[in-house]
Amino acid sequence: ESVEPLFNEQKERGKTKARTEPKPVPAIEEQTVDHSKQEAYRVRIVWKNVIFCSILHLKAIYGIYLIFTSAKIQTIVWGFLMYQAGILGITAGAHRLWSHGAYKAKWPLKLILIILNSSAFQNSVFEWVRDHRAHHKFSDTDGDPHNSQRGFFFSHVGWLLCRKHPDVMRKGSRIDIKDLEDDSLVQFQKRHFLKMVTLFCFIIPTVVPVYCWEETWKNAWYVAIVRYAFVLNIIWLVNSGAHRWGQRPYDKFIKATENAGLSFLSLGEGWHNYHHVFPWDYRTAELGKFQTNPTTAFIDFFAKIGWAYDLKTVPLSLIRKRANRTGTRKNNHEGEVWGW
Ligand code: ST9
Ligand code: ZN
Ligand code: ZN
């Protein structure tokens, strides 16, 4: 039955000898790429993104001025809370839950996370996770969307301002994203992405200060913009700074580093050397919960009320063994905070 169309097509083309079996498709790994026929890679800038990103940052600078001169204290506190919420939507949602499956979540928690995630406006979870899985699988090569070998600027934001390297698509096509295709909330967000980010990233953050404590529209809008630009840059720093500055106690042969300052700002995602070595650990770090890893505390809270479960960790013995084999520090780190 399934080979019918093939027969017909071949007959139409006047071929007499019809094949009885379809030609086996080579496994993706076997599909060799003829590099001599590939066009040389050329950076193609996406000007729309350059303009959007520049305007956003210029407005954010003006917003910082308004914060210091005329915004109400409640609006600033609100902006701070929205920053924390947006980061959690990325760290606990797109990153630890959807990219790595480091824990499982019941639907009320997933709903919270998809809303928080939309408030951060960082591409849909679907796109974010696909890029992030490529980042782990092909770290710091051309298959990594934000390949840090191409410099600080490229891995920070440059990669969002130009077309992707063909290796991202070619190698990325091997990445399994079936779980995302089956996740109805992820698909819902993908379908309604623009509506969701307009509501949660821009409308709600602006309207709340105006209606709740009579902030001016201008101040409310600009504080929302500052918060958005801030969240973007903190998360981008994980790709740029945390592949450059800091220690490598677990694996000195990779670029990812431990960066305490960034962990503080990103609610626990700066322990990046650990994370690249043990990506399935829901803590994305060996130690530290409250000061430098509030995302872990957030997930633990939901585990307590039963909305998060199957939290995956790595046994200390395995961490030590690996650190001793490939890390920069040897033995005796009992009670010591790694990476400081
Ligand atoms: C934003 C995202 O900011 C930031 C992500 C940050 C990631 C941080 C990671 C942190 C690491 C760990 C810590 C986590 C937590 C950190 C917390 C810290 C607080 N695989 O993309 P397209 C294929 S967004 C497989 O259009 P172009 C696919 O077929 C800010 N296939 O490529 C796709 O078609 P479709 C707002 C892939 O045309 C097709 O290629 N957003 C993959 O080169 C085309 O894909 C923006 O400013 C893959 N990985 O354009 C820019 N990728 O999608 C939004 C692609 O239909 N983006 N394919 O399946 C864009 O405008 C464009 O994507 C582009 C590239 C211009 C950048
Ligand atoms: Zn990384
Ligand atoms: Zn990751």
From TrEMBL:
Entry annotated with the keyword Nuclease: no
Domain Fatty acid desaturase: 77-279
GO MF entry, a single one: iron ion binding
Membrane topology according to the record: Multi-pass membrane protein
Basic and acidic residues bias (residue ranges): 9-22
CDD domains to which the protein is assigned, alphabetical: Delta9-FADS-like
GO biological processes: unsaturated fatty acid biosynthetic process
Entries under InterPro entries matching the protein: Acyl-CoA_DS (IPR015876), FA_desaturase_dom (IPR005804)
Major subcellular location class: membrane
One Pfam family from the record: FA_desaturase
PANTHER family recorded: ACYL-COA DESATURASE, DESATURASE 1, ISOFORM A-RELATED
Name used for this protein in its record: Fatty acid desaturase domain-containing protein
The species this protein was found in: Bemisia tabaci
